[in-house]
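Hello support,

Our group uses your service weekly, and this is the first time we've seen a run hang past the timeout. The protein is Chaperone protein DnaK. I'm not sure whether the cause is the sequence or the server load. Input pasted verbatim:
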Amino acid sequence: MALIGIDLGTTFCAVAALDERGRPVTVPNRDGDVLTPSAVYLGPDGTAVVGQPALDLALDYPDRVATLVKRRIGYPDLGHPVAGRAFRPETLSAVILRKLAADAAQQLGRVTGCVITVPAYFDDTRRKATMDAGRIAGLDVIDIVDEPSAAALAYSLQGADGATPGTVLVYDLGGGTFDVTVVSLGKKRFRVLAVEGDVRLGGKDWDDKLVGWAADRFQREAGGADPRLDPLSLVALQAAAERAKRTLSKVEQTTLTVSHAGHRVSMPLSRGEFESITKDLLVRTRLTTQQVLRQAGLTWDKIDRVLLVGGSTHMPAVGRMLAEVTGREPDRSLAVSEVVARGAAAHAGIVYQREQGIRRGDTPVHELLADVIEISVNAHSLGVEVKQPDGTRRNDILIAKNTQLPAAVTREYFTIGEGQSRVRVRILQGESPQAAACIPVGECWIDGLPAELPKGSPVEVRCGVAANGRIEVTARDRTSGRSATATIHRPGGLTEAQLTAEAEWVRGLKIQ
Ligand SMILES: Nc1ncnc2c1ncn2[C@@H]1O[C@H](COP(=O)(O)OP(=O)(O)OP(=O)(O)O)[C@@H](O)[C@H]1O
Ligand SMILES: [Mg+2]
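Update from on-call engineer: The timeout came from a worker crash unrelated to the input. Re-ran successfully.
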């Protein structure tokens, strides 16, 4: 019986659990690797292959392999077919999750619950979709947790008596997403002060720049044919670009070879050239880093440590840029690719204990994680759409970005017709005063209002954000004082019936 933490990454996943002393440890997959590539191959006979073998198969069957699914999470579809079929991103994420949990169960015994991590900058729709992926996989998702918070938690549990208290900046640059977070670390208290990020910026974008550079050069040298237009040449080029990028993290010079349409061109590439090709991406992360500090209301001299998280922080330019901006050498003591999963396992232990009501001192496991307080903030402002007299729609912000969670605000609305039985409230996430520029989380219907309610009756709506960033809405009819049901209808989200159907499909797969 085990609780696990899962870092469901854009390009790589990791799993961790708590050892007998309550310390989080990474659990390798069946092949002995601590990281499992987030890739799914769907075979013609109802089989699915997850991980490195799926990436290998992509070189021959690119249209049967799904990668970068996390980039599409929160959207109704993957954007392209896999093995000839349209997929929900949740379903393919679920296939990955099932494989990860099955591998972990082989070593740990039955997996009873899990915590899945999400980028801090994920909005409610993406958080809900991630939890749904867990349910489709047949897992009991006891919570979700932000990736940088998980990293900070794992960091503070390192060493004999944990990390020294202080304020840390977590710079998390993965394969597909970028988060930067300021966390105040106490002995048993983690308080997130501010979050900034970009859900579409990661190592993959560095690869794409390199692919573009190499393809242009190939066309010049080999007479015009573009390797990006052939699916087989493209996957091979993408893999070569990613390898070249990794090599340049270690040495100053490498060679990238492109083969396409009977031509083969080898091009030398130096670290300096690579850095100049990708410079604008690094600048984007620098601007976001400076912004988060302003959001936290701090100056660099108040930051005690800069923690690096995510595989892309291996690039030397990242450390150099951060040293320049922050005035201190970044801390590279973390296992950048495993620390998020470890923090998720620790968070699973904390949630489990809280729910079980186990008091400290029962076992060492409990002692380590007992009384740990985690406080996070909302990454996006939460508001409701208000129609103006001139017909325009405004975003009326109820809970501002970077407010401590959990948070809730109560507003009063009025019925506009005689005997109205339901009221509609549109919930928005975003910073713009214009509703159209925000992300609609969904419509919340306040149902079950008493019959014959006069026009203009007050209905109280409480919009809240839970500690894990999920939005909750409750409502009360002020005339009768009774609570009314408040259900959020998410336009792109899965219904219960769809969830069950997708879960059944995933259960029927032979996953290898
Ligand atoms: N030595 C290295 N040099 C440069 N980049 C590297 C190196 N090692 C890994 N990477 C890059 O790091 C990325 C993977 O990092 P990580 O596993 O943290 O991301 P992820 O968890 O899949 O993504 P995300 O957290 O954004 O969802 C890939 O883009 C990979 O190419
Ligand atoms: Mg990650």
